[in-house]
Amino acid sequence: MLIKVSPHISLSSLKISDAPDILALVNHNRARLNQYLYWVEDVQCVDSAEQYIFERVNSGLNEALWFKIYFNNEMCGVFAVKSICPQTHVAELGYWLGDNAKGNGVISQIINYLPSLLAHTSAKTIEFRCLEQNHASIKVALRAGANQVGSLPNFMVANGIKQNLNIYRVAL
Predict the structure, then answer these.
(1) CATH of residue 75
(2) How crowded is the C-beta side of 79, counted as CA atoms within 13 Å?
(3) Edge-to-edge strand list for the sheet holding 90-97
(4) Are 65 and 73 in contact (CB under 8 A)?
(5) Global confidence as pTM
(6) Which among 113, 78, 110 has a CA at the least distance from the CA of 95?
């Protein structure tokens, strides 16, 4: 399934067979991604890239959707609705983007498309979880109109610093 978000951006379901391409993209962006994402060091070969994908697409979490992102027909990252809470109707988002698409508003455009993508789900609110030093992701959340609603203190060590995980939400 190919979802056309804009003339230059599309989403396609993430599959185990995408592992070689995911590995290449992670390898090319490893230093930057490793600053904010706990799983990057675990993706070192095709088998571990397959495991990364398998764990996500088979998470069993409510209404989860996992996609690879294409910018100008080149795979550039992953976007997910990680889950939708059946009680609160909050859709937690997750995403990462390679350098080949950074600075083009790709994630913001996908978020603008979210009401269409989530029309047949129970989601009423979207949630962003960003490490406090991940200024790019925080800017995406703020541009989407989200407000910080909480923080998990000392969530993980990234860049040698214990960082809080900030939580932002916005109504769909």
Answers:
(1) 3.40.630.30
(2) 21
(3) 2-4, 9-13, 65-71, 74-84, 90-97, 125-131, 161-171, 147-158
(4) no
(5) 0.94
(6) 78
Residue-wise pLDDT tens digits, 28-52 = 999 999 888 989 999 999 999 999 9
Whether the pLDDT of residue 55 is over 90: the answer is yes
Instruction: Look up residue 108 and give its amino acid.
Output: S
Task: Name the residue type at position 161.
Answer: I
* pLDDT of 97 over the 90 cut: yes
With beta carbons less than 8 A apart as the criterion, state whether 126 and 172 touch: yes
- Sorted by sequence, the CB contacts under 8 Å of residue 77 that are 6+ apart come out as 25, 68, 69, 95, 96, 97, 98, 101, 106
Instruction: At 66, list the tokens.
Output: 């996992």
Q: State how far the Cα of 59 lies from the Cα of 52, in Å rounded to an integer.
A: 11
Question: In total, how many domains does the chain have?
Answer: 1
Domain that holds residue 18: 2-171
What integer pLDDT is reported at residue 111 of this predicted model? 96
Cα–Cα separations (whole angstroms), residue 128 to 42, 60, 75, 96, 142: 23, 20, 22, 12, 10
Decide: 94 and 77 in contact? Cβ < 8 Å: no
